[in-house]
Each structure stands twice: as C-alpha cells, then as structure tokens.
Amino acid sequence: MKKIYQLSVLSVVLIGMLHAQYRDIPDVVTKVATSAANWLKLGTSTRAAGMGGTFVAAGQGVSAIPYNPAAIAYLEGSEVYVSRTNYVAGITYNVISYGTRLSASDFFGINIFYLDSGPIGVTTEKFSNGTNEDYHVTSMSFKLAYARRMTDRLKVGVTLNYIRDEIYTTNMQSVAFDMGSNFDTGIFGIVLGMSVSNFGPEVQYGGEGLQVPVADSLDVDGRLNKVTESFPLPLMFRLGIQKDIIGPSENATLKSSTHRLSFAMDGTNPTDYTVHGNAGIEYAFRELAFLRAGTNIGHDTAGFAAGGGLFFKMGSMSAKVDYAFINYNILKLMHQVSIGLEF
Which of 71, 125, 164, 340 has the fewest Cβ atoms surrounding its Cβ within 10 A? Predict the structure, then answer.
C-alpha cells in the first residue's frame, strides 16, 4: 500500500508540473512553425499510440527506435515490425523496422519511415481553380540504430538518421542524430528513460521549383535559383518513467503470474512547442492479450487514446498484432495497426 501511495504521489506531481506549464497563458509564445520536418515528431509505435504516446521508458524492441534507440537492447533475438497509420486529412504513413542482437551486449536496428499526403491539386496564379494536375508531399527517414547493455540496469543507444522531404518540385535532405538511455533505478521498480531526438544542422529547401528562368543570365542554363531561408529540425528532449503496478516481476508492487498492469508517463520539451506530456497504462493477460489506454497532456489537438493487441506463438517464432486510435478532436480519429515478428 505504501508503494502504491508513493507512485500515486509521483504521478500526480508530474501531471501537475505538465499542466502548470505556461502554454495556456494567452500571450505566451508557443514557438509553433519555427522548425522544418515536423513529421519527425509523429508517433510510429502502435503500442505507444494506445498508451497516449508514452514510450521513452516503456518501449522495448524495434518499434521504439524513434522514441529511444536504447530500447533495442531489450531484444533477445531478432525482430521485424511493420505498421500503417491513417493520419488526419487523408495523410498516411508506414514504418518498417528490423533489429537483432549482435552479441550479449550489442544490438543493431533499422527503422524506415515513409509519409504520403495523398493527392493535392495544383493551382497557379492563372489557374486558381486547379490545373487538373495533382502532386504529393512525401517524407521519409532512414535510421541506423546501435544500442549497448552497459550493465544489467543501464542501456544506451544512438541513431544516425537520413531524412528527405519532397513538396511538388522542391526538396530537402539532411542527416540527424538521436540518443537515449534506459535505466532501472531500483527504486520502487521504476524504469527511467531519456532521449534526445533530431539533433542536426538547419535544413534548406531547393529544387526545380525554386529556379527562375531569366533572359539575361550568366548561368549556362539561363536560370537563377531562389535562396530559401533555413530552419532547424524539431529537436526534442524526452524524459519518462515506467512502473509495473501488478505483474510477475520482482519489481511489481502487487505480484501476479496471470495479470500485468503497467503505468508509464513521458514529458517532452521540444524546441518548436511548449512542454507537454503523455500518460498511459497497459493491461496484459498472461502476456497474450493486451488492453491499453492513455492521454496526451498539454497537446493542442490530441487527447484520449486506446488500443489493444494479441500475441501468438508459432513454433520458434512469435507474432504480435496491435491496433490503436487517438482522438484528435476537431481533426477526428487517427487509426494505427501493426504486426511484429520475433525470431
């Protein structure tokens, strides 16, 4: 009972700190629209989505690479993860991840992300109602992750990330780095997760769409290039905790070999928004069936989230199927589904 009380107090304090942030003050500067490639902040794990986006400490395996690269240090063998998300306004994005254990303490992972806006009608100054031509906004990232078990309680990881954005006839490409850690504190069974994402140089758009033909030019092809302003990537610092309230582990507050109930909470401090957070729970029955729920704290549109999943054993392999949704209020629901294979 004492442990439950202490965990409850800690949760209330963290939630209170997030709600106390100044983003609700009318005159505050929220830093919105001050960075490029905001799609780098999209949630890619279905399990995380069902828990309200909490994953920096709770994530284990390749689906957590974008949240915290140290999460692949939980792998016992190899894992493949595939997900599809029907986002808002007809936008969809897909993820493919792979990870494997190289040695007793070394781990390697790959994460590929691809976003498609769907068809958008082309309009010009002369044809404001459209030219009967469509274009797509596409964004992709390719991550190479490495993680290491430093001790039985500490895991660290880093990611090298190639990113590319295409908007009609303009494009941008760059590289960025992520780093993170997971630490079993040994205090009431709390796991602490930390990560820094999208650390890299400022980016600038270029391409054919920014070329202007001129009659008199020193350029061989008779074109001049417009110089666009450069913008930083959306650098994010995440801090999270995870705790088994009920479960078979020795760190669980209440012991049970059949049921597990985990609580997780994240706080995020981005360079292009105010501090916000996520809180969620996951219930597991014999680690075969899962129910999840969570909420976004301090987010301008995202709110309640929920989901579930099933685990199947198939000989030497196992499979996981997960589904989640997030309520974006006026933007309606986001749906995400994923399949994972462990071998």
Answer: 125
- Could you tell me which of 280, 262, 277 has the C-alpha nearest to residue 50? 280
pLDDT (tens digit per residue) in 298-326 = 888 889 999 999 999 988 899 999 999 99
Q: Which residues, including other chains, have CB under 8 Å from residue 67's CB and lie 6 or more apart?
A: 45, 48, 55, 56, 59, 180, 195, 197, 238
Question: Model's pTM, two decimal places?
Answer: 0.87
How many Cβ atoms sit within 10 Å of the Cβ of residue 183? 18
pLDDT tens-digit readout, 48-70: 999 999 999 999 999 999 999 99
Task: For residue 97, give Cα distances in angstroms to 91, 136, 220, 222, 288.
Answer: 20, 24, 44, 45, 22
> Domain segments of the chain: what residues?
2-342
**CATH second-level architecture of 2-342?**
Beta Barrel (2.40)
Q: Which two tokens stand for residue 39?
A: 């799609």
**What is the residue-wise DSSP string for 287-310?**
TTEEEEEEEEES-SS--EEEEEEE
Length of the chain: 343
